[in-house]
Amino acid sequence: MYTAFSTVISLVYYCGVLTVVRAAPAVDPRVLALPSSLNPYPAQPRITFRPDGTFKLTVFSDLHYGENAWDVWGPQQDVNSSKLMKRVLADEKPDFVVLNGDLITGENTFKENSTVYIDEIVSNLNDAQIPFSSTYGNHDNNPNITHMAEFLREKLVSPHLSYTRILPSGGIYGPGNYWVPVYARASDFVPALILWAFDSRAGNTAGQNSTQVPDWVDDSVATWIENETKLMDSVWGPPGDQRAAVAFVHIPPFAIQQVWENLNNTLNPGLDADSLGQGSTQATTKSSSQGNDEPFWNSLNTNVKNLHAVISGHDHGMEWCAREPTKNVIFCFDKHSGYGGYSSPGWDHGVRNILFTSPDPRDGPLSWIRLENGTTRAHVQLDDQYQ
Ligand SMILES: *[C@@H]1O[C@H](CO)[C@@H](O)[C@H](O)[C@H]1NC(C)=O
Ligand SMILES: *[C@@H]1O[C@H](CO)[C@@H](O)[C@H](O)[C@H]1NC(C)=O
Ligand SMILES: *[C@@H]1O[C@H](CO)[C@@H](O)[C@H](O)[C@H]1NC(C)=O
Ligand SMILES: *[C@@H]1O[C@H](CO)[C@@H](O)[C@H](O)[C@H]1NC(C)=O
Ligand SMILES: *[C@@H]1O[C@H](CO)[C@@H](O)[C@H](O)[C@H]1NC(C)=O
Ligand SMILES: *[C@@H]1O[C@H](CO)[C@@H](O)[C@H](O)[C@H]1NC(C)=O
Ligand SMILES: *[C@@H]1O[C@H](CO)[C@@H](O)[C@H](O)[C@H]1NC(C)=O
Question: Is the Cβ atom of 376 under 6 angstroms away from ligand 7?
């Protein structure tokens, strides 16, 4: 839910005299003393659970806007993708949306207007007034576009609803690392849920003589996760039974290849139509980079406690969730949302929904795939029992 957090000021008539009444401070006074990095959105409403204790998140992934502007079918795909977004947002009414990478097919865009496609995507969220944040993907880094350029455009066209932030480090071409706190009540001191977003970079450098960008979350992010979680624990107290997390990163960690090789389609329902190999998971585009996402993957799983799931897109033919046994963490694929990008007959388009049934971090959220037409499938509960 999206609620105003600043002190409520209301105008009341009292004995015929207009008086300004300041409501009792709704905010825990400790909030005002927080280090600014633990109060990252002072000018925006806090993201909160609903009064009934639930919180619904919808993930649009691999939207791939901007293909072949010079052909009829390119812009038509984007019309279709926006139609899908509008229908899903109207039906699902999520409390928060994540755009999980490959918003734009940068290979096809022009230097002079490559980020205007952000306007088209974000207008659907602006119209529905739903707060959101983005991770960026390999197709969002190309000679005519960068993650940073998309971020700046997103903040320009949706300064109030976008919760995306960037890290000064994150490696070149990989600034999209941040977290968004979600509170049980707007007045709380400690968030009940942290949405982490990581930048798996990849794609190509900007400008002439473009070269490949490393296809894994930069090592500096591993240290940053450690620093951030230490600060959170020291100020808010240990996560214990008060704080859970979900992580979003466009390209799946390398460890997911092994999970796929051992997948059981009964226990792990959902489309399983891609073959995971070179380029499908982090640090695999060049064989010499294998293992380079380990600092990130180790730090995430060591430092972020009560992590319900790690969620990626990138592989459009995948929809399943499964437990990664070495880190004992659940991984889920998104659902390919956009009409752009590779697809096959029968894959369809849709979203992954995640429904938190309470702010208690011990309650595993429900998650499922929703197709454009409203059909749902691959229902799972992301709890301790899930395999
Ligand atoms: C747009 O969607 C319609 C209806 O689903 C489909 O028939 C058509 O092929 C799509 N067009 C493109 C270019 O994706
Ligand atoms: C980048 O944009 C320029 C200017 O519009 C265009 O000429 C060029 O083909 C584009 N380059 C790529 C790699 O798409
Ligand atoms: C971007 O520029 C190209 C080339 O000038 C044009 O064909 C295309 O329609 C433009 N795209 C948008 C969304 O304005
Ligand atoms: C790209 O490479 C060409 C040929 O080596 C060189 O002349 C040009 O200066 C380079 N451009 C940039 C922006 O580095
Ligand atoms: C992490 O914290 C250490 C010690 O305060 C600091 O030197 C380092 O720059 C920080 N690194 C990142 C990536 O935040
Ligand atoms: C997959 O899981 C189902 C349900 O637990 C089980 O019956 C089946 O034997 C498993 N298949 C394999 C190949 O392990
Ligand atoms: C929605 O689409 C799916 C996949 O194409 C199909 O199986 C299902 O019957 C459709 N549902 C409705 C309500 O049209």
Answer: no
| CA 295 to each of CA 39, 292, 359, 383: distance values in angstroms, whole numbers, following the listed order | 27, 7, 30, 26
* Helix or strand run (H / E) with residue 236: helix 219-236
Q: How wide is the angle at C-alpha 282 spanned by C-alphas 65 and 322, nearest 5°? A: 90
Atom of ligand 4 nearest to the CA of 207: 13
Rounded to whole angstroms, the Cα distance separating 174 from 354 reads: 26
Q: pTM higher than 0.90 for the full model?
A: yes
DSSP of 269-286:
-S-B-----TTTSTT-SS
25-34 long-range Cβ contacts below 8 angstroms, 24+ apart? 26/186, 26/187, 27/186, 27/187, 28/187, 28/188, 28/189, 30/189, 31/189, 34/235
Distance CA 60, CA 50 (A): 21
CA of 358 to the centre of ligand 6 (A): 31
Plot region of 64 (φ>0 → left; ψ -120 to 50 → alpha; else → beta): left
Residue 98 belongs to what H/E stretch? Answer: strand 96-100
Looking at the CA of 64, which ligand is closest? Answer: 1
Task: Report pLDDT digits (tens) over 301-337.
Answer: 999 999 999 999 999 999 999 999 999 999 999 999 9
Please give all residues whose beta carbon lies within 6 A of any atom in ligand 6, as ranges.
264, 266-267
Tell me the mean pLDDT in the region 18-26: 46
**Whether residue 224 has its Cβ less than 6 Å from ligand 5:** yes
Q: pLDDT tier at 263 (50, 70, 90 boundaries)?
A: very high
Mutate which of 64, 339, 343, 348 for ligand 1? The one with the most ligand atoms within 8 Å of its CB, which is: 339
**Tokens 């490393």 belong to residue:** 214
Q: Does ligand 7 lie within 6 Å of residue 377's CB atom?
A: no
Which residue puts its alpha carbon closest to atom 2 of ligand 4?
209
Joined tokens for residue 51: 């009064």
Q: Whole-angstrom Cα distance, residue 264 to residue 268?
A: 6
Q: Distance from the CA of 230 to the center of ligand 5, in angstroms?
A: 11
Residue 340 sits at φ, ψ, to 5 deg, of: -85, 170
Q: Please, which residues bridge with residue 381 across strands?
A: 366
The response to whether residue 8 sits with its C-beta less than 6 Å from ligand 3 reads no
